[in-house]
Amino acid sequence: MSSLPAEDHPQPQSPTDLFVSFTLLALQGFGGVMAVVQRELVEKKRWMTREEFIEDWAVAQVMPGPNVVNLSMMIGARSFGFKGAMAALAGMLTAPLILVLLLALVYAQFAGHPGVAGALRGMGAVAAGLIAATGLKLAGALLNNVLGLRLCAAFGALCFVAIALLRWPLVYVLFGLGGAACVLAYARLKP
Amino acid sequence: MTGALTLVLSVQDWLNLLFHYLMLSLLSVGGAVSTVPDMHRFLVEQQHWLTDAQFNASIALAQASPGPNLLFVALLGWNVGLNAGGWLTGLLGVLLSLAGILIPSTVLTYAAAQWGHRNRDLRAVRAFKQGMAPIVVALLMATSWILASANGSSLQDWPLWLVTVAAALIVWRTKTHLLWLLGAGALLGWHGLV
């Protein structure tokens, strides 16, 4: 699946294109950018497939650092090397940084308003739903996984229970469950 | 958020801030949010550079504004800087804390991603990607669960959960623009319906 040549789908035109695209998508990302990255880059622009998105995100997740920042840098680097990585990173951070500082300046005046707190709660609930939807959409990519559906479901369920319900530290889950899944996948892949 | 503390920070202090973030960057497997407890320990309890209220407001504001949640780090640096003088030191705080939290992790990730891409046909690299895929999908569902239960975990909060489930189904099944849904959530919350 990942052996499909990248030329099969559209690519960013230039580092400027990367910068503008990431600025626009970062500005839509209230309460987290992951859902927006998936929708914009996989569904609208088609710069990457669902499978490629999952693969890149796996790397972004096991490396230290903010996941979306890692992910945007990797996507930028894929097309334009270091220049692309910096363009994507700058797009992801610059405009939102200016905005959040401006917000901090006006925040004091409105912090006490009950409507503001309520609106934040409502947006938080929607943002949680957006991330679940991203997971549901990406789950379709598991149909082609070398582990097979049953093992994928078992690993997924275990991971969900460990992180969401038992609140185990991510590091143990990634290296424990993830490591086991990688070993099994290794055994099933043809040399 | 201003005027809560008045600080005099030396060059040594600023370097201390930078180095602490450089270290946290390498420890931030799972994102910058996973290092929040340590940032609280360092900035509020140990150095007394921020008040509790400033710390919490920085995180809430960054969550509520667009862009990566990592920007709460910039706000923490901004507030340390404001406490130490004015907007110039505020900008210095933003610069040092962002550079600190970003540089080590991005350099490492960039190197790893380039290596992985060059060696994408290796059996081990393919196994890593195939094996991690179900974990990654499950992590998204778990993140959603954790965010939803942070908003409301008691029985009376069922309208919040309903909003979360409805948003998930609408985004999964339709092409509705995400901003419409966030706007709807904000309206419902503003009027106290959820």
UniProtKB/TrEMBL annotation, chain A:
Coiled coil (UniProt feature): none
Principal subcellular localisation of the protein: membrane
Membrane topology annotation: Multi-pass membrane protein
Family matches, as InterPro entries: CHR_Transporter (IPR052518), Chromate_transpt (IPR003370)
Pfam families with a match to the protein in the record: Chromate_transp
Subcellular location: Cell membrane
Designated name of the protein: Chromate transporter
Organism placement in taxonomy: Bacteria, Pseudomonadati, Pseudomonadota, Betaproteobacteria, Burkholderiales
Automatic annotation (TrEMBL), chain B:
Keyword Nucleotide-binding on entry: no
Organism: Polaromonas naphthalenivorans (strain CJ2)
Subcellular location: Cell membrane
Gene Ontology cellular component annotations, sorted alphabetically: plasma membrane
Alphabetized UniProt keyword annotations: Cell membrane, Membrane, Transmembrane, Transmembrane helix
This protein's name: Chromate transporter
Domain of life: Bacteria
Any one GO molecular function term: chromate transmembrane transporter activity
Bilayer topology annotation: Multi-pass membrane protein
Bilayer-spanning residue ranges: 18-36, 57-78, 84-111, 132-152
Similarity field: Belongs to the chromate ion transporter (CHR) (TC 2.A.51) family.
